[in-house]
Amino acid sequence: MDTNTTLAYKVIQEVQKAVIGKDKCIEKIMMAILSNGHILLEDVPGVGKTTMALAFAKALNLKENRLTFTPDVLPADLTGFTMYRKETNEFYYQPGAVMCNLFLGDEINRTSPKTQSALLEVMEEGQVSVDGATHPVPKPFIVMATQNPAGSAGTQLLPQSQMDRFSICLQIGYPEQNEEISILKGRLAENTIETVQPVLNARQLIQLQKECQNIFIHDIIYEYIVALIHATRNHHLIELGVSPRGTLALTRMAQARAFLHGFHYVRPEDVHSVFCDVCTHRILISSKARISKVSAYSILKEILAATPSPSVRSRH
């Protein structure tokens, strides 16, 4: 394992101090960050979504802003706005919450669709447009948002275009009994977030992201990824398959997983591991699937099993 991979794992180890028993979830969030993607955490309240986000913010040592999305949050709270300064007789830009490296959005589906859509441009293009002027956000820029399950009181569905901009959507889930006991002991003794130590800075993270982009992908892996994506577009229980943006997200996540596991090339298992996390929130299942209580996740697992996996030898 080389130095940079070790550095990435140190971030994971620091987050594990605050989030107990969710190692796979932590690792996949780190993959999304390395792939320069955005993360959506969807689960019931109280399972540690915000704790997870805050722990990553501290371990990555990035400039972070946090905003809780309530119905009265306005688009300008995110993007910023222009104000008139009487002393100079000029307008100046007042930055919004997204002007940071790591933007933490709590309960993103509690706010209005207009405010939700304010994130579209910045998540895709790394900039905001205010009164005809364009303002780039700092690099790297990562959105880590949480949302309550659809149908929870006071929530509104995110538009499909918004969901598509998140590289992965994860569910943390309830802890096991022994894990919950450890959580109780830790929280009663101290604030676990305070035990997390900074590991990286913005410059180092950008370097790690560049290394991930250089992970080799064989043509047969490209073909395998596209075959999986096309299977989502042709499945009889899926009304809307994965978009080309999703194809790119799957490829970058596979590269990040290979990097994190110390490989210089993408293997089929790297694609397997992240396929459902990248694609579940991107597809719309048919009414027939919903009536039959067939989940998007189970359909994607079926696609994985039905699509032949290639064999890749080490590249020397």
Automatic annotation (TrEMBL):
GO terms for molecular function: ATP binding; ATP hydrolysis activity. Residues 38-167 form the ATPase AAA-3 domain. Residues 231-303 form the ChlI/MoxR AAA lid domain. Pfam families: AAA_3, AAA_lid_2. PANTHER family: METHANOL DEHYDROGENASE REGULATOR (PTHR42759:SF5), MOXR FAMILY PROTEIN (PTHR42759). This is ATPase family associated with various cellular activities (AAA).
